[in-house]
Structure formats: structure tokens, C-alpha cells
Design goal:
Elements: H1 4-21, E1 31-34, H2 59-65, E2 72-74, H3 83-95, E3 97-98, H4 103-108, E4 122-123, E5 148-153, H5 155-169, E6 190-196, H6 205-209, H7 212-227, H8 254-263, H9 275-278, H10 281-290, E7 298-305, E8 307-309, E9 330-332, H11 341-344, E10 394-396, E11 406-413, H12 431-442
Parallel strand pairs: 1-2, 1-5, 5-6, 6-7, 7-11, 10-11
Antiparallel strand pairs: 3-4, 8-9
Helix pairs in contact: 1-12, 3-5
Amino acid sequence: MLSPILRAVLAPALFLSCAFQAASAANNYPIVLVHGFLGFGPEQYTRTGFKYWGGFDDIVGHMRTHQGQHQVWAASVGAISSNWDRAAELYYQIKGGCVDYGSSHTARFASFGALRKPEGKCWAADPANNPQGYPAALYPAWDARHPIHLVGHSQGGQTIRALIELLENGSPHGDEGGGELYKGGKTGWVVSATTISSPNDGTSLRDAMGESGAALTQLASGIAAFASIGNVAQPVHDFGLEQFGLRSTSVEPPAAYHQRVLAAPFSSRDNFDSAQAEMTPDGARTFNDWAKTSRSVYYFSISNQATEAGSACCNNTDRLLFPLQNPSFQYPRADMASLTRPYAGEWVIPSAGKRGMGSYALAVAGRVPVDHNWFANDGVVNTVSMRAPSGHPARDYDGTPVRGSWNFLRNYKTYDHFDMIGWPKQGPRVYPIYDALAAILYGL
């Protein structure tokens, strides 16, 4: 048996060699990419051409033509919505129809403004019969005979797991008013699910951020500013909250829209129909109890890390932010995205001694323990959380994928949360990551 050190050394080469062995495609099923928290779809920044999947490059376009012709799509779901809501949107966006969030589910959150069937979230299954002019569904033929691969980055990894749970087992709350998604019985519709930089056990970022309102606005505005480089008319970073009556308008300034969302009942800490609940370690534990690992699906995971252990000198961290370092804690690399660097180290910068992700720990009865194993992170998600949900079957990938288990592919050191989706920085392009992954998926 290989030692842990030797396994770590050989893992990158094994990932690539196994991928290329699988290049003799056994299938050419479509791949659907699902963005994460505060993410966006292809329609968001058309004026600048900035894409969630690739930044000013194009991961989707590359995957469609790499080693043959393939069907690859980038989905668009709620930026700060719960995984249930995002999964419902993903289902109808792929299959076609108008989103139904479920009667029982909506009733549970009606006091926060939840709507079951809001206007503005429909996709046409038949473009030839589309008098309303809805956007075309991605893959209306989708069923057990025409399955798909799902790939999620960040919260997108939780979202695709929620979709698989609903497809196969339906709603845990009963009828939900007859919506097709909630009936269950759709085993075999998904061949594989891959999570990239995903908070499978949650992230301590929420605790590092503290009151999330100001940080949420700062992050959303930062992403919009970066994506809108060269375009004076900066678009609103739309959260896609029609199901809570929070639609953005073209004449509403971004700051006003964000403040309207933060002031709405939706943003209450008591509203568990939002991303803020399920992405914490405690919320992820509850989510993992519900969203089981299906025996019919191949699960893959990819992790990354953009922090290093503290040192008196001579590491690659941002020593302007953290001139004094403790070797027991983790600190952000100097090339980590500036949006998340202030939260990734020993302290939140600036703050009055508030612990950052690189040193935050928690030991409280009844809550998920957070210890030193959680310190390494990519600026958004703790690296240890990316491997697999705790308590679910998991293994290191050895070239032979196992269905019904998590197959951990590789940890990309020096890559931050946004590097994994190709947002610009100095260094290698991100395409090889997706080339190797696609080779494995098409070889299943």
C-alpha cells in the first residue's frame, strides 16, 4: 500500500494518466456546469464577455470542441438561493417548463416572501412552439435513456447533489402539489456528479465574515466591477430571487438593489431557504443527512488550496497583510484573489481581533467541530471540506471509478477559489483541469 506522502506525490500524475486512459470515450452524454454562490449565468455580462466558467476565456466553448464535438452548457441559477430552489431551477432549465418550487416547501417559507410559481423563470422545451419567447431549455430529451453529467463549482456542488436527491427520491414533504420533479423515481437520469472547490461539509467563511450583509454587498460589487472592466455601464449583479419577489430592474442602481435584498424578509437569519444556512458546517451537516450519495451515480471531487502555514519569513503569503505569523495557522498566498484574501488568514483584515478562516476553530456541544484541519482554504471554502461529505463513502481515485462512492481526484495547491474557474491571474491556464475531468467522464 502506498504511503500518504507517496500518494500525494503521485496523485497529479495519476489523475492525468487515468484521464487519458479513459479518453477512448464510452459515452458522449451532455455535461451541465452549475455555478456557485454569488455566481451567474452566460446572460449576465454579455457586454464585456466575462463568463463564470473561464472569466475572459471560455471553458464551455473549449470543452465543446476538445477532442471531438460535445454538448456542454453553463446553467444559470439563483446566486444566493437555497440548494432546493437552485435544484428546482436547474431541473426546469434543463428539461423545460416553468419553475415550480413545490407547494409544501413554499408554504414553509411563505412568511419570508416565498412564491411557488413566480413569473420570469420559464424555459421552452419546444422552440417551435414558444409563443411567450422563453429561452430554450438546454436538453428537453433528458431522461434515463438520455442521461447527463453534472459538474458544480463551490455551492454548485451542493446544488447538483440536491437535484439528484429530488430526482431519485422526491420531496421529503410529500406531494408538493404535483410538480414532476418532486415525485422521485428518476434514477439513472444523472451518470456522474463532480464537485470542484465545493463546501461538501460547509465553510467557516460565514463565521469569519460575521454579519454577512456588508460582506455580501462587497463581494457582489467586487465581482461585478471585475466582470465589467472596460464597460462604463456596469450591470446589476442579479441574485435571481424572483421566487421571493426580489427581481432586479435595469434602472435600479446595483447598490440600491443589494440593499433592497438585504432589507427584505428573505435575508433574515431565520430564513433557512437561502444559501446562508446550508453553506455553514452546521447547515451542511443537515443538508448531508438529506442529500444522500446515490448508488446509481459516480461522484468525483476536486479540491484546492491557496494558503500556507505561517512562517517567520520566506513563504509565499501576503506579508503586508500578515507580517507576523504563527506556524500553527494558515495565511493567504500573495496571489490569492484580493476579494477573499482578508478573510483567509489568521485574522479578518480589518477587524478587532476576529478570527479568519486560517485560525477559526469551534468546539461547542451540538455543533460541528471546527479544528486545525479546517485552517487550509482557498479563500472561500476550507480544503478539508472539498473532498466529500462526512459520513458518505469516499476513496482516493485510482483509475477505476466506483459508483455510489466519492472518488477524490486531486488537490490543486496554489489555486484559489476563482483560479479553479479560470478567472485571470498569472500562471497556468485552467483548461487542463477540465480536459482531464472530461476524459474521465466520457470514459464511464
